[in-house]
Amino acid sequence: MFSVRKFVQHIIGRHNYHTTEIKMSLEQAKLVAAYRAVDEFVQNNNIVGIGSGSTVVYAVQRLAERVETENLKVTCIPTSFQAKQLIIKHNLILGELDTNPTIDVTIDGADEVDANMTLIKGGGGCLLQEKIIASCSKKMIVIADYTKDSQKLGDRYKKGIPIEVVPMAYVPIKIKIIQMFGGEIKLRSAIAKAGPVVTDNGNFILDWLFTNQDLDWDQVNSEIKMIPGVVETGLFVKMCNKAYFGQAEGTVAERSN
């Protein structure tokens, strides 16, 4: 019989993680959310958008299992370099928007989901391609662990809203956003190299640490995107159809739009 706990222990051990109860519960939560989404939304002959992040690893794994056991035919459209490598690693069919401009369902993670299904995404730096793929999808399904479930944006995710910008304009953009909405903005720095993070698209990322949690996020998103040099924001407003939140004990909470 399939054991979620034993499977997650195997995954954690394989990647040399410390097997603490906290880590165990988070990985279990990610797995059950990912498996539920893939089982309920992916069908034969689907075009599937593959998101980015640690939870999506489990979704691709489950998708590969279903392709093998059920002989499903699916084409996968990646949202990032990481997603592309996951698709290739699991021997799934790799597609692109040029030949698959309409996607049946995209399964992606999120840094935070509020009560209105507004998302913060881009903690991993893939917000532009993630939003493009989501915009081409009939349905966007979010998979996350219980720590990403909030009433208001900023309740739990404290790293701010990512904003992808053209490098030459990052300073004036930073000033304008603070003038418009307050808060603090940091240029995201790289970890293994000196200097800023550079996205897959050759841009910089600003992380906006907002202080007002009661803003109209749809309006905020629109106004920030009107600033010349802003490429995209990590605010996903009215894009998510359903969210699955894996719980520590192995159950799944759902929220629909």
Q: What is the number of strand segments?
A: 14
Q: Which radius of gyration do the C-alpha atoms yield? A: 18 Å
User: Low-confidence parts lasting 5 or more residues at pLDDT below 50?
Assistant: 8-20
What's the order of the H and E elements?
HHEHEHEEEEHEEHEEHEEEE
Helix content: 25-40%
Q: What value does the average pLDDT take?
A: 92
Content-based structural category: alpha/beta
Family: Belongs to the ribose 5-phosphate isomerase family.
GO biological process, one term: pentose-phosphate shunt, non-oxidative branch
Pfam families: Rib_5-P_isom_A
Protein name: ribose-5-phosphate isomerase
Keywords:
4-stranded antiparallel beta sheet, 7 helices, 257 residues, alpha/beta, 7-stranded mixed beta sheet, 23% strand
What does this structure look like?
- By secondary structure, the chain is an alpha/beta fold.
- It contains 7 helices and 14 strands.
- Helix 2 packs across helix 3 (54-70).
- The longest helix has 21 residues, at 21-41.
- The model is unreliable at 8-20 (pLDDT under 50).
- It comes from Danaus chrysippus.
- One of its GO terms (biological process) is D-ribose metabolic process.
- Belongs to the ribose 5-phosphate isomerase family.
- GO terms for molecular function: ribose-5-phosphate isomerase activity.
- Its EC number is 5.3.1.6.
